[in-house]
Write a structure and sequence with these properties.
Elements (H helix, E strand, L loop, with lengths): L2 H13 L8 H11 L4 E4 L5 E5 L5 E7 L4 E7 L5 E6 L11 E6 L2 E8 L8 H5 L8 E3 L5 H6 L7 E4 L4 E2 L4 E4 L2 H18 L6 E7 L7 H10 L3 E9 L20 E6 L2 E2 L2 H14 L4 E4 L7 H4 L8 E9 L6 E4 H17 L2 H5 L2
Parallel strand pairs: 3-12, 3-13, 13-17, 14-16
Antiparallel strand pairs: 1-2, 2-12, 4-5, 4-9, 6-7, 6-9, 7-8, 10-11, 11-18, 14-15, 14-17, 17-18
Length: 353
């Protein structure tokens, strides 16, 4: 994809509604971009698969469709919506966030509310806010009014944030974890459709990653890949107060090669191959050893007899917040690097992994 087209795809993906278990809108966007280029299908959990048939090894490229979201667990007599998190939210970022909900009768907009500081004692202001102290206010005014809007237990919500471009090719929007990975996935798929390659490519948009890597597991069990590259929007750490030597995911510094997180150790031969390809092409990259977190790679690499797997990250500032930042330059470099790797992954090379 050209830069402008890549940007437009990312903006569309960021704006789309896709909490865990309700990724259909994101999947439809992907299908629209993939149909005519590959055979598309979905597994029984909902992950989208586009297959580019070939004679070589089965190479899986995965990015998750879902975003951190919220689920209504109860509606109060006054029409407020109590909710629980879908994914790893930090409670402090939520109060005051505008949200979109998909009720049974259509889309509804509201805002996450909590007691304002005017009504809090000094000690209450100093302690963290719990999910139980927050609610979604859609202006209903009563339980009956909320029900008439199609709102009940099980309805899901995401932040209501319109994506836009800031200075220096930085994109601001919701769900950039992992819509940057999905945008990269679609761009690589477009390139693959226009050229020859020595393998069978399995382009996979997984579901329910944010609640335990569930779609990655079922998709890999269905597809039996020989090798897997996971494209992820990884948390950026180039923030005030972080020592420069500890920064492993800075915006504008290129793709991140994840060596370790608690869910997976990256395949060492794949790591060296990626580094070699990046250095040959003059693509900057970052190495990451993460003490927390996990990705779809954590479930995919354990399928069958084991799948050589590596996570390539596009740094995202303020991941799992209502609005995030990502660099279009990092996205472009990731697409270039992954496309180059695909050309190398023939039977002999994959056999050595």
């Amino acid at each position: 994809m050209e830069r402008t087209q890549l940007l437009n795809v990312l903006l569309e993906l960021s704006a789309s509604f896709g909490p865990p278990g309700q990724e259909e809108e994101v999947a439809a966007i992907c299908r629209r971009h993939l149909e005519g280029r590959a055979v598309c299908r979905r597994d029984r959990l909902g992950s989208l698969v586009a297959e580019f048939a070939g004679d070589g090894p089965r190479v899986m490229l995965a990015a998750h469709l879902d975003e951190v979201g919220l689920m209504v667990k109860a509606v109060t007599a006054e029409g407020y919506l109590r909710f629980l998190p879908l994914g790893a939210w930090w409670e402090a970022v939520l109060p005051g966030t505008p949200v979109r909900l998909k009720g049974r009768t259509g889309e509804v907009r509201g805002v996450i509310g909590s007691r304002p500081p005017h009504f809090l004692r000094t000690e209450e202001r100093r302690r963290p806010l719990a999910f139980e102290e927050m609610f979604i206010d859609v202006g209903a005014g009563s339980l009956a009014a909320a029900k008439a809007m199609g709102l009940e237990a099980g309805v899901m919500a995401v932040p209501d944030v319109s994506p836009e471009v800031l200075a220096g090719g930085v994109v601001r929007g919701k769900a950039l974890d992992d819509r940057v990975g999905v945008a990269a996935l679609l761009a690589v798929a477009k390139r693959l459709a226009a050229e020859s390659h020595p393998n069978t490519i399995l382009v996979v948009g997984t579901v329910q990653e944010e609640i335990g890597g569930r779609g990655g597991r079922t998709a890999a069990q269905m597809l039996h890949p020989d090798v897997c590259l996971v494209l992820e929007g990884t948390p950026a750490d180039d923030l005030p107060g972080t020592a420069s030597e500890l920064v492993q995911g800075g915006l504008g510094r290129g793709p991140q090669i994840r060596i370790f997180d608690p869910s997976m150790i990256g395949n060492r031969r794949l790591i060296e191959m990626v580094r070699e390809e990046a250095e040959t092409r003059g693509i900057p990259y970052q190495l990451a050893v993460r003490e927390t977190g996990g990705t779809d790679g954590g479930t995919i690499h354990l399928v069958d007899l084991g799948v050589p797997t590596l996570v390539l990250g596009i740094p995202v500032r303020y991941a799992h917040a209502p609005a995030c930042l990502a660099s279009l330059d990092d996205l472009e470099k990731t697409v270039e690097l992954v496309s180059a790797l695909i050309r190398r992954l023939d039977m002999v090379t994959v056999g050595r992994l």
